[in-house]
Specification:
The chain is 33% helix and 14% strand. The chain is α/β, with parallel strands linked by helices.
């Protein structure tokens, strides 16, 4: 059994996460009756079947909507699944939409309708500042590769509960109208779409509830979702592979070691018994603090030391419930990346479509300066202005996320290079050569950085050469070559723009980050009861040569594979066919692992 009477008191809070308060009706969340809530509370005392919600049928709790995509991988179909799973009664006030869990589901068009009938199901946790649609390429490619090998595999990309605060009305409408200004008019001009106006980027009381959305709620959400979608624990153990990208590998590590009823004697609810194996995408599956430096182990602190530290970080979580910076990384700027994807999706060759419609505010101006300036003087003075750069929409997207321009390693993909227009070594916010330094280089990626040399010249329009269309000029060869370019700029734009769930996460809960370093605290120790949970199942680890440098997993059954030329995002976004003519590596290996994880 998943539950026992002896553990009911300690798990009352988590049990209610399935059994109280909101129901789904025709895709909308409506308040359930007081009777239902009271009945749910009583069931905590007397016990209830896994996933049961009084007065609410499974059909009412779940909705699945097809995702329309222009992806060339036509043998795979996608849908968005939403499941009613309310937060516990002690959760801070939050919108009703946040009582629902969502994920993107990819399956073969010829595969079984019921997920339980699939040969294998890969369930992925996203990385930091990342949502479900970041997995679009690797998911479709994996399902396709598995089908070619004769097996029906599904790929589920989980979306964090905090993403319920996002409003994608503007970007969705812009795709429908074919006009980027539809989005900017909505987000910045007060325009109404389908009777709705933008309520602003949430902060203050609207985000206070995120101070409780840490590792406990995150792994509980995954467990509850798996139990609802696949009620048979033995089937979950047989068919589910759990994994993630970046921070998602560490969340998966905690999931593997978690005991969901707090009773180590009942093992059907142990995290490692929900999966038959693990996969790590430019990460490692490991509970504990992500190692910033190789060889620095986690410290198993006594509770007398760990709990005061946890109390202190709890104050930080309450004061800053959303992890954000004044510029570059915050809700407004992560939505900016989505709009850049929309611009490149609608008109790749259009000139200055994004910068022409963005408002002049401190956050956006500082972000554009930080990401697009060629040196510190330009970033500081704003002269020349980055808005005077003439560039196509795909070149702007490339400048924002390509490894030869984007300064932060965790936001880098290898999507080609600037066309024939002149460039110089980019000297802000990093300096040339820093990418080769130990430790620091891992955070910056391994690529040499370039920036446009000319601004304000309408006769010089910066263009973009896709990953498989590099020119042979000495300028290009100085910065990159075809062996290190693996992601298509058009596919990246599609993943940023098209899926209904996000690629870049607006509201990342600070608590999820701080909790990773609280493995010794009493609150986590109470459920982190299976310290060998990761080692109980086989694992596949795929790391890019330009990705985040991490130590080996230490897992005796690990299958570590280093993928040449891939940066941190490339393990998710790489094109189906690579420049060497071979199939994409990560999805190929995931399909093989799904066929035979043991």
């Amino acid at each position: 059994m998943d539950t026992t009477v002896s553990a009911r008191a300690s798990r009352a809070r988590s049990t209610l996460s399935l059994d109280q308060g909101w129901i789904v009706s025709r895709g909308n969340l409506v308040r359930s009756s007081v009777t239902t809530v009271v009945a749910a509370v009583l069931l905590v005392v007397v016990g209830s079947p896994a996933g049961a919600v009084p007065g609410v049928s499974g059909a009412e709790r779940r909705s699945e909507t097809p995702v329309v995509s222009s992806s060339p991988v036509t043998e795979v179909e996608a849908s968005m699944v939403s499941v009613f799973a309310p937060l516990p009664p002690d959760a801070l006030p939050h919108p009703p939409e946040c009582d629902t869990l969502s994920y993107l589901r990819w399956k073969s068009v010829d595969g079984p309708t019921d997920s339980a009938d699939a040969d294998r199901i890969l369930v992925a946790q996203p990385g930091i500042f990342e949502g479900a649609s970041a997995f679009e390429s690797v998911a479709g490619n994996t399902v396709s590769a598995a089908a070619a090998q004769g097996s029906y595999v599904e790929f589920w990309a989980l979306d964090r509960r905090s993403n319920c605060l996002e409003d994608h009305t503007g970007t969705r409408a812009a795709l429908a109208t074919g006009n980027l200004e539809t989005a900017t008019d909505y987000y910045y001009g007060g325009a109404e779409i389908d009777g709705r106006t933008f309520d602003g980027f949430a902060d203050g009381d609207r985000t206070a509830w995120l101070s409780n959305q840490g590792i406990e709620q995150t792994v509980r959400d995954q467990y509850d979702l798996l139990r609802f979608e696949l009620p048979d624990q033995k089937l979950r153990k047989e068919k589910v592979l759990c994994g993630g990208h970046s921070l998602g590998g560490f969340v998966t590590g905690y999931f593997a070691e978690w005991d969901f009823d707090g009773n180590p004697e009942t093992l059907d609810d142990a995290g490692y018994n929900q999966c038959g194996g693990y996969f790590a995408l430019d990460t490692i599956v490991k509970a504990g603090t992500p190692p910033l430096v190789r060889g620095i182990p986690d410290l198993d602190l006594p509770a007398a030391v760990a709990d005061p530290i946890a109390d202190l970080t709890g104050l930080v979580d309450s004061a800053l419930p959303v992890l954000a910076l004044p510029a570059v990384i915050n809700p407004e700027t992560t939505n900016l990346l989505a709009m850049a994807g929309v611009a490149a999706r609608l008109d790749p060759g259009g000139v200055n479509d994004l910068v022409n419609v963005l408002p002049n505010n401190v956050n956006i101006d500082a972000t554009l300066r930080a990401l697009l300036s060629k040196d510190a003087l330009m970033a500081t003075t704003g002269n020349p202005s980055v808005r005077t750069l003439y560039a196509t929409n795909d070149a702007v997207l490339g400048a924002l996320l390509d490894d030869n321009s984007q300064p932060f390693g965790f936001l880098q993909a290898s999507v080609g290079f600037i066309g024939a227009q002149p460039v110089v070594d980019k000297a802000f916010p990093t300096l040339p050569g820093m990418e080769t330094l130990p430790v620091v280089g891992s955070a910056l990626g391994d690529a040499k950085k370039a920036a446009p040399a000319l601004y304000g010249d309408p006769n010089t329009v910066y263009t973009w050469n896709d990953y498989d269309s590099l020119d042979s000029s000495p300028q290009t060869a100085r910065y990159t070559d075809s062996s290190s370019e693996v992601t298509s700029i058009s596919q990246l734009a599609r993943s940023l723009a098209e899926p209904p769930l996000d690629f870049t996460e607006w509201y990342f809960p600070t608590k999820l980050s701080t909790d990773l370093a609280q493995s010794s605290s009493t609150a986590i120790r109470e459920h982190r009861l299976h310290r060998d949970g990761v080692h109980r199942n086989p694992i596949l680890t795929l790391q890019g040569t330009g990705g985040i440098e991490l130590p080996p997993s230490g897992h005796p059954g690990d299958r570590p594979i280093v993928v040449q030329g891939y940066n941190h995002l490339d393990v998710l976004t790489a094109a189906r066919t690579q420049n060497n003519g071979l199939p994409e590596v990560v999805s190929t290996e995931l399909a093989r692992f799904a066929a035979n994880p043991s």
